[in-house]
Amino acid sequence: MEDFLHNMDWVLPLRSDWATPVANGFTWLGYTPFFLMFLPVGYWLWDRAMFTRLAVLIAITAVVNGWFKDLWQDTRPDPKYWLDGRIEGSPGRPSGHAQVAVAMWLWLAYEIRKSWAWIAAIIITFGVCFSRLYLGVHDVDDILVGSAFGLASIGLFILLLGPSFDFWRRLPFWVHLAVILALVPLLWAVWPPEGPAGSSFFGHIAVLFLLFGWVAGQAIDYRLAPERGPRPAIWKQIVMAVGGIVVLFAIRAGIDNGGEALGLSRAITGYGGAAILGFYATGLAPMAFRALKLMR
């Protein structure tokens, strides 16, 4: 059993010139740039409420993942197996890619409730999980634990969306914002001590600031447009998706460069930038689309 969970020699014969790009494609679905494109586009073009719930679920499971990574400080496989150099020395168990993939894609299938959605979710989830093994940056133990945590996150989220928490959804949005901010010092107080592999506190807590901006922008969006009009023409949707994402990444680059030029700390630039990007996605971008007559 120990050999099955941790030995990575079996991966090497599977590698090929065509399989490696496929694995890199699946593994890219677990990195920040993908989420910064997928979540806003889903909010703009598909369903505001559904993608807000998805953003909350991802934030919850990401913070849980970071907390347990720093608690266990589990070492990754030997670097000789690695084909992905973006892991920055973070601990292995639980796999963040596996945990978020299971939570995100299976939750979307649960919301959509169509056969094609379940088939797509299973294929993508398996592809993301297996890609981490193929690229040699996680072992089977990391993937299994991450997947279990992803399923547990869905169970917890279903509970949070149940009638027992109707009172929370009736609270004004500023209370939600205050609670999100209050979680930061609370998590800092209970976060496991930094271990040999370093702390992932900063990166995972930045997700809460992104959620803070997302909720603030959504409150304005719903106030300006309580009901969505008919779905825009295809060409307008393409303009919204491409233009909106180009502007988002331009803002992100401007924040990073501006913070460095001003000598701001990593925390201020990272947390403030995350909040701005969240606010842009749900507040500023929809306002701009309506001003340009791209959507009603």
Detail the topology: elements first, then pairings:
Blueprint: H1 2-6, H2 19-28, H3 32-45, H4 48-72, H5 96-112, H6 115-134, H7 140-160, H8 166-170, H9 173-190, H10 201-224, H11 234-262, H12 266-291
Helix content: over 70%
User: What fraction of residues sit in β-strands?
Assistant: under 5%
Structural class comes to mainly alpha
The number of strands is 0
Which labels suit this protein?
about 300 residues; mainly alpha; 12 helices; about 70% helix
Describe the overall structure.
Helix 4 (48-72) runs antiparallel to helix 5, helix 5 (96-112) packs antiparallel against helix 6 (115-134) and helix 10 (201-224) runs parallel beside helix 12. It is built from twelve helices and no strands. It is mainly alpha-helical and 296 residues long. The model has no long low-confidence stretch (mean pLDDT 90). The N and C termini lie far apart (58 Å). Helices cover 72% and strands 0% of the residues. The radius of gyration is 20 Å and the shape is globular.
Give a quick summary of the entry.
The chain has helices at 2-6, 19-28, 32-45, 48-72, 96-112, 115-134, 140-160, 166-170, 173-190, 201-224, 234-262, 266-291. Helix content is 72%, strand content 0%.
